[in-house]
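Protocol step 6 of 9: fold each sequence in the batch and record its C-alpha cells directly after the sequence line. For illustration, a two-sequence batch is reproduced in full.

Sequence one:
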Amino acid sequence: MKTTLDLPDELMKEAMQLTDIKTKSEVIILALQELIKKNKVAELKTYKGKVNLDMDIDLLRNRNAHSG
C-alpha cells in the first residue's frame, strides 16, 4: 500500500540511526511490527494468574508417546 505521511525529520533520522535501517519504509514497517508485538504481549499479560498451568509433565509425556 502506498501512503503519504508527514513525519518529523528528526524522529525518522534517529530511528534510522538507532536501528541501522537504510530506508524509511523499513523503519516504519519495523515500528508497526513492534507496536503490534507490544500490544499482543500486553494482552497476554492480562491472563497472568488466570490460567491454571498445573500439569503433570510425566503424564503428558506418556500420553504423547502412546499416541504417536
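Sequence two, same batch, same settings:
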Amino acid sequence: MVKRAFCVNCFKASSACICATIKSINNVHLLHILQDPSEEKKAIGTARILKLSLKRVKLTVGTLFDEQDFDVNNSYLLFPNEEALPAERLTDEVMINKKSTFILLDGSWKKAYKLLMNNPFLQKLPKVSINVDIKSNYRLRKSPREDGLSTVEAGYYLLSQLENNSEKFNPLLESFEFMIDYQISQIPPAIYQSHYLDKLQD
C-alpha cells in the first residue's frame, strides 16, 4: 500500500497543504496552546494554523503540564465561566502587559475540560472570555456548546479583542476557510449532507 505524502510543515496531506495560505502575524501577546494528544495529527485540526501564522506562539502537546514552565503570575486562561473577564476589558483596564501569556486549550470540549481538571494550576489562573458575534464556521465538527468554536477561531477572537484589531488577524480565518473548503470538496455531496450538514442542523 502506498502511503499518502504529508507536508512536514502543516502536518496535512500534501494535496491538502495549507502552507500557501499562511501569513505571518506579529501578535503582541504570547499565545500558548496546550493540545490534547488526540488532536496533534487530525486532518481538520486548526491549532497548527495558529502555530504557523503567529510570531509569538507556543504549542505544547500533552495531558499533564509542569507549572514551572508557566509564568502563573502573568498568565490568563481562555475559558468561559461566570468569573471570566472579557478580553477587551483586560486592555482597557490595564490588567495586562506585553509579557502576558494567554493559554488556549486545544481539544474537544470534553477533552479541554479534562486538561483543565488534570492540571490544578490552570484552574487557579484568571479566566478570560471572548465576545463572539457569529456562529462557528467549523462545518466538519459540531460542538456540544452552542457557542463552541474551533481553536483557530477562538485564537482569532481572543487576539483581535486584546489588540482591538480584527483585520490584522483575518488571515487566520482565511487559512481556516481554505482548509474546510478543501476537506468538504473531497466528500461526496450526499455523504456530506447526511453525515455533516444534517448533524450540524440538529
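Proceed to step 7 once all outputs are recorded. Observation for sequence two: The first strand starts at residue 30 and ends at 35.
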